Amino acid sequence: MRKIVFFRLFVTLLLFWLAATSLSAQNANVAKTSDPLPAKSDVILSEDFENVAFYPEYFAPINWSVIDADGDGIYWNLFLYYNFPGHNSNHCAHSASYVGGIGPVTPDNYLITPLVEGARRVTYWVSVQDADYAAEHYAVMVSTTGTAIEDFAPLFEETMTAKPAGAWYERTINLPEGTKYIAWRHYNCTDMFALKLDDVTIYSSAAEANPVTDFVATLLENNKGQLKWNYPEGYQPKSKDQGTMQLTGYNIYANGSLLAKIEDATTLEYIDSTYMMRDESLQVEYCVKAVYNDSVESAAVCGTLQYVITSTEAIQSELRLRIFPNPASDILRVEGMNADGSAFELYDTSGIRVLSREVNGANTTIDVSRLSSGFYLIKVVSGNQVHTEKIEITRD
């Protein structure tokens, strides 16, 4: 299909360019549609590529600019053709990786906004022209200085995948403080067809990072803390084309200090064994923060657990192992584990984990020569069973 329509596109663009050259001279004082909006609005700039005053030599909106970094004379243009519609509209910006009459090209093309000082968020709609040739690659770049290529740094990039023809996808990206210019760079692809961009809106406020929901902290047997939560409101874990920021995981805090990082957004539970062995009661405030792309954290959702006094003798063991010698000074041996794989953790009397390791095989040795003298708790997880035991480390 792409080869059939491109000749018609070429003729249409040529006629439009000739008309536009004449109109440009007659309308030198036309209103600039990309100018900043009134100061009271959260919107700094809005561009839908419809009815714009443009530079006829490269069909970009007034105050926008383009860079043809690969120097092939093919750059971002406006699509003004019925076979290449915009997002719910007639027009959009596009950059080609295949050109009728020429063949495959290797684009490295920048489309750059006007100055958008104070910008903190951008939303836009992106599409490919042909679902059979969909692997267009692009990046959103930001500059805190000027509009030269070397001024821009990548903020987000993706390779488009095969989607139904005409499908558009919204993207929302928070911008770093100090952003002055934003560029869409079409590159790292060839012999597809065309990448399309439309309905760009730039805001002075960042997108809200929604927190987790339904957070519950529960004290389990053996003084373990169970933390459970649910996805942020509106999040759909199976969706790959969400318009909002992308959820990447969770950060868990205990009394204000980072306890764990979870880098799987589908994980909705965490078990804390830090306080299994207590000589005194302790209150711990747990907080969970949703983490989005660019390490953006949501507000914290918190709950409190009261840990009770325990002794190592009171901790139940579900697995019977041989752990020796006890006391130990250099090497501690563990025998009788599940041969398919086990793991152990070693805690000091304050509940701090000092050693941990995964083990393959029924027997293993643990080097304890660097540990200080004193009592420790070893926890061995083997299969679906757990064994805990108090050991003593001595120094000669």
Mean pLDDT across all amino acids: 81
What is the CA–CA distance across the termini? 82 Å
Task: Indicate how many domains the architecture comprises.
Answer: 3
Sheet having the most strands: 6 strands, antiparallel
Structural class: mainly beta
Q: Level of helix content? A: under 10%
Number of E-state strands: 30
Percent strand? 35-45%
Shape descriptor:
elongated
User: For the record, what CATH class of the largest domain applies?
Assistant: Mainly Beta
What's the tally of helices? 1
CATH architecture of the largest domain: Sandwich
Computed CA radius of gyration, to the nearest angstrom: 30 Å
- CATH level-3 fold name of the largest domain: Jelly Rolls
Spans where pLDDT lies below 50 across 5 or more residues: 3-39, 312-316
Topology, please?
Layout: H1 2-26, E1 43-47, E2 54-55, E3 60-61, E4 65-68, E5 77-79, E6 92-96, E7 98-99, E8 103-104, E9 109-112, E10 121-128, E11 137-143, E12 152-159, E13 169-174, E14 181-186, E15 194-203, E16 213-220, E17 224-230, E18 247-254, E19 257-262, E20 269-272, E21 282-292, E22 296-297, E23 301-307, E24 322-324, E25 331-335, E26 342-348, E27 353-359, E28 363-367, E29 374-382, E30 385-393
Antiparallel strand pairs: 1-15, 2-3, 4-9, 5-6, 6-15, 7-8, 9-14, 10-13, 10-15, 11-12, 11-14, 16-17, 17-20, 18-19, 18-21, 21-22, 21-23, 24-25, 25-28, 26-27, 26-29, 29-30
Main attributes of the structure:
single chain, about 400 residues, mainly beta, Jelly Rolls, Immunoglobulin-like, 6-stranded antiparallel sheet, 5-stranded antiparallel sheet
